[in-house]
Amino acid sequence: MSTVFIALQANEETRPIIDAIEIDNPQAVVNRQPAMVKIDAPGRLVVRRETIEEQLGRAYDLQELQINLITLSGNVDEDEDTLTLSWNE
Amino acid sequence: MDMKATKKKLGMKERYRVLTRDLGWEPGYQSKEAIFPYVRYEGIKVHDWDKWEDPFRLTMDAYWKYQAEKERKFYAIIDAHAQNNGHLNLTDARYLSALKIFLQAISPGEYAAHKGFARIGREFPGVGTQVACQMQAIDEIRHAQTQIHAMSNYNRYYDGFHAFADARDRIWYTSVARSFFDDAMSAGPFEFMIAIGFSFEYVLTNLLFVPFMSGAAYNGDMATVTFGFSAQSDEARHMTLGLECIKFMLEQDPDNLPIVQGWIDKWFWRGFRVLGLVSTMMDYMLPKRVMSWREAWEIYGVENGGALFRDLARYGIRPPKGWDDAEKAIDHMSHQFMLGLYQWSFGTAFHSWIPSDDDMAWLSAKYPDTFDRHYRPRWAHIKQLKAAGTPFKNYGLARLCQCCQLPCVFTEPGDPTLTCHRETVYKGEKYQFCSDGCKDIFEHEPEKYIQAWLPMPALFSELGGDVAAWMDWVSLRDGADNGDYDGSRDQRHFDEWRGLATSNL
Amino acid sequence: MAVTSLKEYIGVARDRVDNYGGKQIVYLSWDHHLLFAAPLMLCLPPATPFGEVLRGPLAALLQADPDAAALDWSKVEWLKDNRPFAPDFSRSLADNGIGHKDQLRFRTPGLNSLQAAA
Questions:
Q1: Tens digits of per-residue pLDDT, B106-158?
Q2: Which are the contacts of B57, defined by CB distance < 8 A and separation ≥ 6?
Q3: Which pLDDT does position A34 carry in this prediction?
Q4: Are the CB atoms for B117 and B136 separated by under 8 Å?
Q5: Chain B residues with CB-CB distance to A82 below 8 A
Q6: Cα B74-B78-B79 angle, rounded to 5 deg
Q7: Inter-axis angle of helices B222-252 and B304-312, nearest 10
Q8: Residue A56 and residue A35: Cα distance in Å, rounded?
Q9: Which residue on chain B is closest to A59 by alpha carbon?
Q10: Domains along the sequence of chain B with CATH
Q11: Which of C6, C25, C40 sits opposite B457 (nearest CB)?
């Protein structure tokens, strides 16, 4: 199965976001590289607003991800509650 | 910035509809054909522009909000960098060569991309596409500006930064990136989209930005990390736009498939050639290296590119024609380039050097099948020449490829001991190429590529072969900007100033 | 179609021989001698005798290669247009049929110091 990934800057804002992604995607692998974190997952990865809000302790707009996003791979679908990356095979 | 999430009256999908598609209108007194004259001649058939949608559903109001936040973060760090002797915190000033290449060749490419997206934002009829192109056009000019601004701090202290605009227009290695963007900008809007949005952004920029920025962080270059990440935060959106556009074309009409496939073949190869310089930055120019070019290719080329083309197979798309030749070149290209840059360093506005014993041990471990066998003997001989007081300078100017404009440093895909020679005759003129990929591109549209301004032949046709006059013309200061790093002013200054910064004597 | 365009489009070749003030470009490349990172470019009058090219500008450029001293031009195998070629050293480039932007390759079997053992 093809890998999808999302890479975020390593900083204070993204720490709880990365935790949330790990919680929602138990199959994901978190790679910590200089100044960035790249999260790989087989076939599909879901980022959920609610989980981020729980980790962050405040309301969160998923589009805020734009600020700390480095790169991603896979077909994107985003609404208020989730950002999904997936490959069709 | 206060990032309170406010209660929205409209859902995201609804808001996107209102703030993009609802901004469009049906023309009353002009035909659509007259308003959008460039969307048909490339042969792409579109039946319903409303089917195109930005999957991030980013609207202009949100765009400004987030971009302003990115700029604030960027300038906070740039100020800190300038105030804290950031130019002395590098691992080694050799690293600056990578930055100089970036400033002379890549940042102007960002500006070219800005012009291109501003143009196609006007040429495409779909409102969703127009809005996304407008955002990208603004992103790209922001990238050019922030990069130039961030690197201007190094210009106060080091050579090779002062005349990047002349280098961009005139020096030989920058013509590679320039011709790439000129080729895209002189194509129609759909081809431009595949060239920049898909091949460059989606398939290749990961290889440029991600390891490069991570490398900057590893080498203590806070300024570049900052502009890199600030720019890169836009790239995810650009990649997504590129991928959406390609899917849109393929879904609109089956007749689009062969045209799109042809562009993928062409632009993958053109992008791969431009990125050759990046392989050298990664393997040779970062004093402290994050990963080898080969390792980066495995992650972002083989794995990620492979996933993409398996996904697009449902439309009938196959991997780019040059894919196998690219794979065969991976373990050779950084060495072939660096050997070239070193022997032509009298004509580069950055320094190169002979890799140290430690560097060669690393290269040998990362390239077990190729480095010791093919490249170490050449470096060893070059080292001997230098020790004997006759450093190797190759004053035989290089044959350039008529398509990618790189010196033809590449070998036959199946034989790393033999230069790849390809040529063709068009209307009685002979043309030389570096590869089958570049020759194929030329033969598909010869009327375009016969006009190429090739810097090496131009040295003879325009300046009569006078190298000193050429240096003046490209604003290259002989003895300062060029040559071996070993013994350079950059090396002397860095060592001296770092000494001052860490001692009281 | 020689270019995708809205209407008929004719390009102007930029590197025609007329632009070189009576000279021409010749590319030379020593097979399997990759110390020289790319084929070498020379700009010469077409009346230059072929042998003079070898003894003059080419010999100067090849000095850096450890095989340069052992190079015996009488034993070299030549290729032009990637096909075998037999130049007459006493005659000019033009008389040898070497045109503007032609690529000449030469081979010296057995003389490959810096090349990996096969």
A1: 999 999 999 999 999 999 998 999 999 999 999 999 999 999 999 999 999 99
A2: A78, A79, B12, B13, B15, B16
A3: 81
A4: yes
A5: none
A6: 120
A7: 20
A8: 20
A9: B5
A10: 65-357+373-502 (1.10.620.20)
A11: C25
Q: What ipTM did this prediction achieve?
A: 0.96
Q: CA dist A64 to B67, B138, B394, Å?
A: 10, 19, 52
Neighbours of B8 (CB within 10 A): 11
Q: Is B387 exposed, middle or buried (0-12, 13-18, 19+ CB in 10 A)?
A: exposed
Tokens of B39: 């969307």
**How many CB atoms neighbour CB A31 within 10 A?**
12
Q: How many CB atoms lie within 10 A of CB C82?
A: 11
Domain containing A78 — which CATH number?
Answer: 3.90.56.10
CB contact under 8 A, B307 and A80: no
Q: How far apart are CA B39 and CA B32, in angstroms?
A: 10
Residues B483-497 pLDDT 10s: 999 999 999 999 998
**Which residues of chain B have a Cβ shorter than 8 Å from any chain A Cβ?**
3-5, 8, 11-13, 55-58, 62, 66, 69-70, 73, 205-206, 209-210, 213-215, 217-218, 225, 229, 232-233, 235-237, 239-240, 243, 247, 290, 303-304, 306-308, 310-311, 314
Contacts of A36 (CB under 8 A, 6+ apart): A7, A8, A9, A10, A70, B210, B213, B214, B217, B229
pLDDT digits (tens, 9 = 90+) for B270-313: 999 998 888 999 999 999 888 999 999 999 899 999 999 999 99
| Cβ within 8 Å of residue C65, ≥6 positions away | C30, C33, C35, C36, C113, C114
Of B42, B188, B447, the CB nearest to C11: B447
Going along chain C from its start, the domains and CATH numbers come out as: 17-107 (3.10.20.560)
Name the amino acid, one letter, at B418. Answer: L
Take residue B245 and report the two structure tokens written for it: 């556009």
Give the distance between the most distant pair of CA atoms in chain C. 58
Neighbours of B29 (CB within 10 A): 5
> Which of B339, B397, B429 minimises the CB distance to C13?
B429
B386, two tokens: 């230098």
Q: How many domains does chain A have?
A: 1
CA B306 – CA B309 distance, rounded (Å): 5
Burial class (CB in 10 A: 0-12, 13-18, 19+), B100: buried
Chains C and B touch (3+ CB pairs under 8 A): yes
Q: Which residue, chain included where needed, has tokens 């190869």? A: B269
How many angstroms separate the CA atoms of C80 and C98, rounded? 8
- Asked if B136 and B58 touch (Cβ cutoff 8 Å), the reply is no
Supply C101's token pair.
């932007």
Range of the domain at A57: 3-86
| Stronger pLDDT, B212 or A87, i.e. the higher one | A87
